[in-house]
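lol forgot to send this yesterday, sorry. struct tokens for the thing we talked abt
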């Protein structure tokens, strides 16, 4: 059965009053028992002091203890314990050598720390319950024990007179509470009826706003007005909150909101994912970011003199770059936003490096062309000398043309790769075409090409791009491998829809293997000036890698055991 407001108010106040009364009674009984226990301990302390003085005056032999017992009450148990816990004398036990070490007894441990200690427990020597009291003197303990029998328990029993007085006051208080609760009943019932009607949507303001003409009636009228305002604002807030939550959850940023006391209010899953990349340990608690060093470095909450409410910093962890932004609000709450800017940062760095490389590569041929032309224009040269300079300038323009061609191809692979048409291509035919076109260059360097490509080695790719792969690899041999070199091209495996090829030469190779992973970088040189001295644009192997990646394949390079380089690459098999 549901209780009325009057009954609940009465019961609640009764419980409070009962708890208060019980607390006072319990405290009073505990205090009285404590006083009595302290009185017993004071007596035992006096007995311990007497024993100490007696031992100092008459010695510690058994006869001295026996004469001392005549001065103490007959029920007192006296024990002398050295500093290490060994029992030296006990008036109830004649053989103390076999007794357990007493250093671990509660009263001894407490006496070792505080100078004195007490405990109520059963003795392991005679299975009798005692009130123990131990006191530390000069390098030993005197322990007095009083049997915890019915006489001692009765002495420690608190007086119940105060308890009866408290119970009487409790009964009077119950009657007063019942009277006061009845006075609130009528007005509270009306407020209850209003809240029920408002809760189930049956509120009739014209019929339900008749409250009594008293303070509670004024409160009821104000509640109705505030209820209508609150209902309207709650609908607006719920709509805005739903929009905010959807935005945060679907945001490409990791977002976490913190309360003014630095507790997590709300966060999205991306924030936790980014935090586990940035942090030293894996965590499921977004508040862990507050303990990170990179957060503490910028975590300065604003004061009255600081108008800055936003701080930003870049953090690099695990090969990724993040932008952390802390937005602080007027109530000292704040939000932390993590953005993965790795792609844009890499793009920026690549563009910066590429711009520098292009400028560096263009500077030399342009400077050379300018120098040759200035020499021709400013000096009167013999026809043969003038032709010599024009030929040099012409070769530099060819280098510029090759550089522009290669850059165009790389840009097309990255930005408009969809324009390349893929179809079945015979790799043996591509290699034969490249070897024929480069026959003069290969013959000049005394380079021979050996192939071991099956007739059915057909790949799905763009023939022009595959031609560029083979030609760039052969040009790399012509420019860098030396003379009297052999090139071996073979298909060595086929699995999972891919054909695997090997392109190896017997040339000079690369002495330092640390250069191998960087051979596919644009404009990378093993030694400064190598590309210009031997020809080429410095983009050939970069083009090779991008073409292989465009075909969903892979490529690696290594030094051959017998000298030279070996390129291993895979291409998708034509179905």
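and heres what i got for the seq, position by position
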């Amino acid at each position: 059965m549901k209780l009325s407001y009057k009954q609940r108010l009465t019961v609640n106040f009764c419980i409070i009053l009962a708890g208060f009364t019980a607390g006072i009674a319990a405290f009073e009984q505990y205090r009285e028992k404590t006083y009595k226990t302290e009185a017993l301990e004071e007596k035992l302390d006096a007995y311990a002091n007497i024993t100490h003085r007696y031992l100092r005056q008459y010695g510690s032999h058994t006869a001295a203890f026996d004469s001392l017992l005549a001065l103490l009450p007959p029920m007192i148990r006296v024990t002398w314990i050295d500093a290490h816990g060994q029992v030296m004398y006990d008036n109830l036990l004649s053989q103390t050598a076999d007794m357990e070490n007493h250093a671990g007894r509660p009263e001894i441990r407490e006496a070792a720390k505080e100078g004195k200690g007490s405990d109520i427990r059963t003795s392991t020597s005679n299975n009798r319950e005692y009130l123990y009291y131990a006191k530390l003197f000069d390098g030993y303990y005197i322990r007095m024990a009083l049997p915890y029998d019915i006489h001692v328990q009765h002495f420690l029993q608190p007086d119940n007179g105060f308890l009866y007085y408290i119970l009487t006051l409790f009964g009077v208080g119950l009657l007063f509470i019942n009277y006061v609760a009845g006075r609130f009943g009528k007005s509270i019932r009306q407020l209850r009826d209003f809240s029920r009607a408002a809760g189930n949507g049956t509120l009739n303001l014209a019929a339900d706003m008749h409250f009594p003409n008293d303070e509670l009636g004024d409160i009821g009228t104000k509640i109705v007005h505030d209820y209508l305002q609150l209902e309207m604002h709650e609908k607006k807030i719920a709509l805005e909150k739903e929009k905010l939550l959807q935005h945060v959850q679907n945001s490409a940023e990791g977002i976490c909101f913190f309360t003014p006391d630095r507790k997590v209010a709300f966060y999205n899953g991306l924030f936790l994912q980014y935090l586990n990349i940035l942090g030293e340990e894996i965590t499921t608690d977004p508040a862990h970011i507050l303990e990170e060093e990179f957060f503490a470095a910028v975590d300065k909450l604003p004061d009255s003199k600081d108008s800055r409410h936003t701080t930003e910093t870049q953090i690099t962890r695990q090969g990724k770059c993040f932008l952390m932004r802390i937005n602080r609000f007027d109530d000292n709450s704040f939000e932390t936003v993590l953005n993965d800017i790795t792609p844009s940062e890499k793009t920026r760095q690549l563009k910066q490096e590429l711009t520098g490389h292009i400028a560096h590569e263009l500077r030399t041929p342009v400077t050379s062309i300018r120098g040759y032309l200035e020499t021709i224009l400013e000096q009167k040269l013999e026809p043969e000398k003038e032709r010599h300079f024009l030929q040099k300038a012409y070769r530099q323009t060819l280098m510029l043309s090759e550089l522009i061609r290669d850059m165009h191809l790389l840009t097309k692979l990255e930005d408009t790769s969809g324009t390349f048409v893929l179809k079945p291509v015979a790799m043996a035919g591509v290699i034969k075409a490249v070897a024929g076109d480069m026959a003069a260059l290969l013959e000049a360097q005394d380079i021979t090409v050996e192939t071991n490509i099956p007739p059915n080695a057909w790949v799905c790719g763009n023939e022009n791009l595959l031609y560029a792969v083979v030609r760039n690899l052969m040009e790399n041999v012509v420019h860098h491998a030396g003379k009297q070199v052999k090139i071996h091209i073979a298909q060595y495996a086929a699995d999972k829809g891919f054909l695997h090829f090997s392109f190896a030469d017997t040339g000079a190779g690369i002495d330092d293997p640390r250069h191998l992973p960087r051979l596919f970088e644009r404009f990378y040189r093993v030694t400064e000036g190598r590309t210009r001295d031997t020809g080429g644009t410095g983009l050939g192997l970069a083009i090779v890698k991008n073409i292989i990646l465009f075909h969903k394949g892979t490529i690696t390079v290594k030094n051959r055991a017998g000298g030279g380089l070996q390129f291993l690459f895979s291409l998708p098999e034509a179905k």
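The chain has five domains: 6-156, 161-244, 251-339, 345-411, 420-572. anyway ping me if u want another try
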